[in-house]
Amino acid sequence: MPNERELSARAALEAADRAGRRTREATSWYATYLLATGLLGFTWILVLNTVAESMAGHLVVGAAVVAAGIVLERWARAHAAHPRGATRRRLTAMVVWFGSYLFVVGPLVRWQAGNAVAPWAAASALMASPFLVAALLERRRS
Amino acid sequence: MTHPRKLLDGAIHSPARFSVMATLNAVEKVEFGFVRDTVELSDSALSQHLTKLADAGYVEVSKVQEGRRTRTWLSATPAGRAAFEQHVALLNLIAGGHGDEPGAATEP
């Protein structure tokens, strides 16, 4: 038979487990946020390099991306719980995405394929994949 | 040869503070109202517990102005997370009935 001290310890652990589980459930939105950020990045790179060739086109695409980004950030801020490592995961995905566009995949595709849609679609998907990976990890965790 | 209960951290040993730390340990940051509702405390009771946890260096409280609204965000510090994990380990020892065995826990 467990004594009173053991029962009290078990009750405390169960209460802590419930609180932790409920809190983790409240962070499940973050996977959707990462996916939406990746989708935004995918669309931006694709449209910027295939459709919007003029300066005006670049400005329109840029404005649309900024507007979508603001909406996404507002939606994120409306949530009461942010998962552990959220900032680190998002920053890592953004650095990999933008770094590969600037220095590796972007210059290579522009050199080899010009403005062709299919190569840019594949490259944009590849560059946005860190967001997908982070979203999958987040979904599994929460 | 110390009984684990003697190693329990007084700052988070109260059931309310332990649940607050469990909530904070699960996330990067969380809003005051969410913790209040999860742990089922009043605003003032949660504030008092947070003051004790902040004094122990386990919790950070930050207020952010968003338009007309001020939001209070809470997060566990690295020391707070370590203390919570240690506390959980000790409670597991006690709950498993190992606390009464000689040499069950040693001073950290």
- The ordered string of helix (H) and strand (E) elements of chain B is HEHHEEH
Q: Report the structural category of chain B.
A: alpha+beta
* Number of E-type strands of chain B: 3
Percentage of residues in strands of chain A: under 5%
* End-to-end separation of chain B: 12 Å
Report the largest inter-chain contact: A-B, 28 and 27 residues
Span from first to last CA of chain A?
35 Å
Rounded to an integer, what's the Rg of chain B over CA atoms? 16 Å
- Assign a percent range to the helix content of chain B: 40-55%
Q: Averaged pLDDT of chain A, please?
A: 89
**Oligomerization state of this entry?**
heterodimer
Percent of residues in helices of chain A comes to over 70%
Helical segment count of chain B: 4
Care to count the β-strands of chain A? 1
| Low-pLDDT segments, ≥5 res of chain A | none
Major beta sheet of chain A, specifics? none
* Overall radius of gyration of chain A: 21 Å
Proportion of strand residues of chain B: 15-25%
What does this structure look like?
The complex is a heterodimer of chains A (142) and B (108). Chain A contains five helices and one strand. Chain A is an all-alpha fold. The longest helix of chain A is centred in the C-terminal third of the chain and has 28 residues, at 86-113. Chain A is elongated and about 75 Å long. The two termini of chain A are 35 Å apart. The model of chain A has no long low-confidence stretch (mean pLDDT 89). Chain B is of the alpha+beta class and 108 residues long. Helices cover 46% and strands 19% of the residues of chain B. A three-stranded antiparallel beta sheet of chain B has the order 1-3-2. The model of chain B is unreliable at 102-108 (pLDDT under 50).
